[in-house]
Amino acid sequence: MSANPAKARNFHELSKGWNIIFNCIAGAFAFLCIFPFLFVVIISFTDEGALAREGYKLIPSKWSIGAYQYIFDSGDTLLRSYGVTIFVTVIGTIVSLLFIALYAYAISRKSFKYRNFFAFFAFFTMLFNGGLVPTYIVVTQFLGLKDSIWALILPLAVNAFYIMILRTFYSTSVPDAIIESGKIDGAGEFRVFLTLVLPLSLPGLATIALFSTLGYWNDWFNALLYIDNPDLVPLQSMLMRIETSMQFILQNSQNSSLSLEALRSMPQDTSRMAMVVLATGPIIFAYPFFQRYFIQGLTVGAVKE
C-alpha cells in the first residue's frame, strides 16, 4: 500500500520545535559574537574615575565622552588620518580587484598556454617570500615609494591566496559555453571578460573586495616602515602613536610634574576602547553592503542541485 504523497514527509524541512531550538542557538551564538564589541563601546563611554572605582560594568554609574574628547584634541590630525585611510582603502581595493581579477581569469582559462606556470608562480609566493629587508629595499630604493601614498597601496595589491580563490570561482561558476558563445559572436578576451564573466562573478569579486578592504583598513605595518610624513599617516598607525604617547607618559609620570598633570586628566583605559571603536566602526557599517555577495562567495565549490 503506497503512502499518500500529500502526507509524505519532507526531509528538507524542520519541525516547528526544531526550528525554534536552532533559532535560539543561532541567536545566542550571534549575541556572543557581538557582545564583546558592544561592551567595548560601553566602556569607551564610561567615566575614567568610575571605571577605576567600580571596574568594568555593563551599566556604569557615570557616563562620559572624555575618551573621545582626548583623542579628538589632536586637532585635524585624526581627521586627516581618517581621510588617508579611506583613500588608501578605496583606491587600494579597486587596484587589488583589478590585478587579482585579471590574473585569476587568465590562469583559469584552459586555453591559456602558460596557465600552469603563472599558477605555480602565484602559489610559490604563498610558501616562500624574500623577507622584510629585500622587500623594504625594493619598495624604497628600487620603486622609490618612500613617503608616498602608493607605499600603502601597492605592497598589498596582489595576494596569491585571493588569486587562488577567484580562480576556483571562475572555474566552477563561469560555464565555458558562455565564453565560447561570446567568442562566436566576435568578442575578444577583454570584451568577454567585461560583459560576460564579470556579471557572473559578482559574489566572488565581492568576497575578495571585502578581504582587501579589511586588509587595507587594518594595515599599520606598511606605514611604520615607509611613512615618515605626518600628513600621510593612516588611522591605525595614528592610533598606535597615540597609544605609544600615552604609554610614554605613564612610564615617566614620576619624573615630571607636567606628566603627572597630564596623567590626571588623561583617560587611560577608556581611550583605548574609544580607539577600538573609531578603528572598527566604519568597517562594521560597510560590511552589510558586502554581506549578500559575501555569503554567496563562501559557497565556492559547494555541491549544488
UniProtKB/TrEMBL annotation:
- Where do transmembrane segments lie in this chain? 20-45, 82-105, 117-137, 149-170, 190-217, 273-290
Coiled-coil positions are none
> Where does it localize?
Cell membrane
In terms of superkingdom, the source organism counts as Bacteria
Its chief place of residence is membrane
All residue ranges annotated as the ABC transmembrane type-1 domain in the record = 82-279
List UniProt keywords, sorted A-Z: Cell membrane, Membrane, Transmembrane, Transmembrane helix, Transport
State the CDD domains in the record.
TM_PBP2 (cd06261)
Q: Which InterPro entries match?
A: MetI-like, MetI-like_sf
Membrane topology according to the record: Multi-pass membrane protein
Q: Which Pfam families match?
A: BPD_transp_1 (PF00528)
Which family does the entry's similarity section mention?
Answer: Belongs to the binding-protein-dependent transport system permease family.
Q: What is this protein called?
A: Sugar ABC transporter permease
